[in-house]
Design brief:
The chain is an alpha/beta fold. It is built from 14 helices and 30 strands. A hairpin with an 8-residue loop joins strand 24 and strand 25.
């Protein structure tokens, strides 16, 4: 396609007056209501009067001069200038003949402010060079999707009444190729083994730590620079599409982490884009994050809102993402987030709430659910902000789910205690039911809990090695029974001993070692039971789905409760013993008679336990107890979770 002159410069001068933007586009952009900007701005290959080339368009309202530089013109800023639109939108445009797929480019911007000169990647680029190289790449996003069956079905898979068990993972460190200098697996390479593993382990969804382009690998993707470009570390855009397509064809939902809360200060990115604070808030008390040393978007600028909502919809449009998980929502909601007194600006009412960010979040969620009602947006929100996962029209923020950070912290703190002292912390187990139905919660043991000295999930557990594994099996069993959808970070399912290291793959060799292998089997069978047992997921967000049997036995460290589905679903009894003491003849009240089968027991020998149990189940006795007409007299194994269900 490309046609070059003898000097290596494409034949033909830039052509102006060619545009994908209409007057309505400009109006919506300036109003903050244009949510498909990636179709209009950026680099788009097309033909003008039969001449193939690329149309470039970039928003730089405070620029004095903008030109396109690239490998097609020797990075010469004089060769291909862009022209400002006549409508004062701040958008610069130009069609360059002969530039096509694979061309490297940047924008050279000379600002009106002190003649500041900078070279920037395209904010709307679909593809970029592998970091640390920084050029954008002209790229077409055509792909022959074959996931129509999944797309028609996914509304049921993502339903609030569906089983959702998420495997959270970082592509660059799940598996590597040690014999090839420990290189990453590419998107296409990882598809086969990942799908097989998800099938084997009975997960329903996979969540990828941010795959949007990011300059610093050690940020795990959370310092995003390419809001419309997947990272090129693992392949081209179509390779990621292939991975998602294959996951969908195999019946797995795909969750993408997305970060509208801040962006890095790298010189080739969004920061000081046209010599001014274009995307970030100009006042550092609102525009700079002190913890992460990153910039914060100016949510009050209409064009920035259009940019961010367009990015969210882009991943749903072009990459068929099923769910977006929004990182660090709390940092967006509060003006004083991580700031001492005097280093933040109150809102117009004197409060600490970031009204502009709240308005942006609500608009984002309204647009996502309007265009894609079979998808969801998840909030990682760590405070007690009310109604995070309630619709905007009833006063909520409009998210579909919220990570239950309170449950996670309380539960891990409880499990960190020596069982001898757990009775003094019993409230940390029971308190979550005071607010369990106030939001649509996801119970998450995420990547954040296994880094920075927090230790791996296994090493968080107290006691000797046997007790560590028993505690971890108990923890996962308790999690499966507790109301809320589930999420587990990679490595936790087989008890990785060391903290997660993004520079290396997981310790897969441990899967051949009996205690790790047995833990992995427990997670596999627990997931299967969870996703096939309606009582465990149908009423996750309703008090109708949960009933305490006994939450007061703090002295013996035992809790028992019922999970209930719809009228056709048999209830499931969950009994957990958080001490290493075997409890014989432990009485538990139940609502109906018959034979109650012991469906799962984390202390079974095949899971690495001691083998104590109830010989497959027990016939209910017509002895009233704990407000129920019947009761069971159970053997409760040490540090174990039991699941029992009536046989009908």
């Amino acid at each position: 396609m490309e046609k070059f002159s003898a000097e290596g410069i494409p034949s033909g001068e830039p052509r102006y007056g060619i545009s994908l933007l209409t007057d309505e586009d400009i109006y919506l952009f300036r109003e903050g209501s244009h949510f498909r900007l990636y179709e209009k701005l950026g680099a788009h290959s097309l033909c003008d009067q039969g001449t193939p080339g690329t149309l470039f368009a970039v928003w730089a309202p405070n620029a004095q001069r903008v030109s396109v530089i690239g490998d097609f013109n020797g990075w010469n800023e004089s060769s291909h200038p862009l022209a400002p639109r006549w409508d004062s939108s701040g958008i610069w445009e130009g069609f360059i003949p002969g530039v096509g797929q694979g061309a490297l480019y940047k924008y050279c911007i000379v600002s009106k402010i002190n003649a500041y000169r900078t070279e920037k990647r395209d904010p709307f680029a679909f593809y970029s060079e592998i970091p640390p190289r920084t050029a954008s790449i002209v790229w077409d996003l055509g792909y022959p999707w074959e996931d129509g069956g999944w797309m028609a079905y996914r509304g049921r898979a993502n339903s609030l009444q569906a089983p959702i068990s998420v495997y959270e993972m970082h592509i660059g460190s799940w598996r590597r190729v040690p014999e090839e200098n420990n290189r990453f697996l590419h998107y296409r390479e990882i598809a086969g083994p990942l799908i097989q593993y998800l099938k084997d382990m009975n997960f329903t969804h996979v969540e990828f730590l941010p795959l949007m382009e990011h300059p610093f690998y050690g940020s795990w993707g959370y310092q995003t620079i390419g809001y419309f470009a997947p990272t090129s570390r693992y392949g081209v855009p179509q390779d990621l599409m292939f991975l998602i397509d294959r996951l969908h064809q195999s019946g797995f939902g795909v969750i993408l982490d997305w970060v509208p809360s801040h962006f890095p200060s790298d010189g080739h990115g969004l920061a000081f884009f046209d010599g001014t604070n274009l995307f970030e808030h100009a006042d550092p008390r609102k525009g700079f994050h002190p913890d992460w040393k990153t910039f914060i978007f100016n949510y009050g600028r209409h064009e920035t809102r259009s940019f961010l909502v367009s990015s969210a919809l882009f991943w749903l449009d072009r990459y068929h993402a099923d769910i977006l998980r929004v990182d660090a929502v709390a940092s967006m909601l509060y003006l004083d987030y991580s700031r001492p007194e005097g280093e933040w600006i109150p809102n117009q009412y004197g409060g600490r709430e970031n009204i502009e960010a709240i308005d942006f979040i609500k608009r984002l969620n309204v647009e996502v659910y309007k265009h894609y009602p079979d998808t969801h947006v998840i909030a990682e929100e760590s405070t007690a902000w009310p109604m995070v996962s309630r619709p905007v029209w009833v006063g909520g923020l409009g998210f579909g789910f919220k990570w239950n950070m309170g449950w996670m912290h309380d539960t891990l703190l409880y499990f960190s205690k020596d069982p001898l002292f757990r009775k003094y912390h019993h409230h940390q187990l029971t308190f979550s039911m005071m607010y369990a139905f106030s939001e649509n919660f996801i119970l998450a043991f995420s990547h954040d809990e296994v880094v920075h000295g927090k230790r791996s999930m296994l090493e968080k557990m107290p006691g000797d090695d046997w007790q560590k594994f028993a505690n971890l099996r108990l923890l996962y069993g308790y999690m499966a029974g507790h109301p809320g959808k589930k999420l587990l970070f990679m490595g936790g399912e087989f008890g990785q001993r060391k903290e997660w290291d993004h520079e290396d793959e997981l310790d897969w060799a441990l899967c051949a070692v009996p205690p790790h292998q047995q833990l992995q089997r427990w997670v596999k069978e627990l997931n299967y039971f969870y996703k096939t047992e309606p009582a465990l997921f149908q009423n996750d967000f309703s008090p109708d789905g949960f009933e305490w049997v006994n939450c007061f036995d703090w002295e013996r460290g035992v809790i028992s409760f019922l999970r209930k589905g719809d009228a056709q679903a048999e209830p499931v009894l969950v009994v957990c013993n958080f001490t290493p003491v075997l409890r014989n003849n432990y009485k538990v009240g139940i609502p109906m008679g018959g034979f109650w089968r012991e469906v799962l027991n984390s202390d079974a020998k095949e899971y690495g336990g001691s083998g104590h149990g109830n010989l497959g189940g027990q016939e209910a006795a017509p002895v009233p107890l704990q407000g129920k007409y019947f009761s069971l007299s159970l053997i409760i194994p040490p540090l174990a979770a039991l699941f029992l269900k009536r046989s009908v």
